[in-house]
Amino acid sequence: MASWIDIFSFLLISSLFVGTILGVIFLAKSFSAAAQNTKESLQSRGISISDKGVSIKTSKRFDREDYVDATQRSDLLSADHDGAVHSTKIFGIRRTHSGASK
Q1: Segments of the chain scoring below 70 in pLDDT
Q2: Distance between CA atoms of residues 68 and 74, nearest Å
């Protein structure tokens, strides 16, 4: 027959296990809720995150005139009269030109 110490030890160990399991479940739900709140916050700012990637919504379309303006500004900034090879970075794309087409 089990003594009162055995019963007390069993209840104490059982409550520790149950408390640990409930704590892990609570933490998992908290992290999930925090991630969802962050996702909704980014969504309201125009950034959409899904399992397929990240999508950023812009308020303006980039048209030909904007592209030509940016390219001309870049060419003027990198213009060099000694015929050296230039390397400029426009919109995340590195362009290299010799200056022969100027």
Answers
A1: 59-60, 75-102
A2: 10
